Amino acid sequence: LFDNCTIMYSIFIYPLFLSGLFLLPVLCAESSATTTSVSDNGTPFRCYTCLGRDFDNCQSGSVHCVGSCWKIIDHDHELIAKGCTVQQKEDGTVDQNLNTRVQLPWTKDLETIHGVIYYCTGDFCNGARELSIAMPLLGFALMLSYLTGQFFCQ
Questions:
Q1: C-alpha closest to that of 51 among 73, 82, 77, 84
Q2: CB 73 within 8 A of CB 129
Q3: pLDDT tens across 66-96, in order?
Q4: What does the pLDDT average to over 9-37?
Q5: How many CB atoms lie under 10 A from the CB of residue 71?
Q6: Spatial contact of 99 and 116, defined as CB atoms under 8 Å apart
Q7: In whole angstroms, what is the distance from residue 152 CA to residue 154 CA?
Q8: In 3-state terms, what secondary structure has residue 134?
Q9: DSSP structure class, residue 59
Q10: Residue 46, CA distances (Å) to 72, 93, 98 in order
Q11: What b/e readout covers 76-90, taking b as 16+ CB neighbours within 10 angstroms?
């Protein structure tokens, strides 16, 4: 009734392909929904505020903002901080090696938060995390399933 290729494609390849199709619109909708700027008409938007001890767990609050949201990634101390500035920064502006002169509360020495800072304008635009391993892993799984199908179905 079915050959080996049909069974393999129905079990492995189609589910992986469909999971990629369902995952991509969700990620794209999330990123585009958070970059809509409302500061041009003077209405404040919301920014996440937090200071986290690692890149993934940043307990967030939020604040009304009329300037720009920001996110700083401090690789030396493995932390992330988010907030708002009254300065009007262009969406997507990046400053390298910025020293905030804000002392880390858990250090004995006068170490400060420093690193790469990203600015954006729009509701909760500073909420995006760094690219996780999930997307490259999904791509690798799709490629592997395609190559497996090509190898076994000849």
A1: 82
A2: no
A3: 999 999 998 888 888 899 999 998 888 899 8
A4: 41
A5: 24
A6: no
A7: 6
A8: helix
A9: -
A10: 17, 18, 23
A11: ebebbbbbbeeeebe
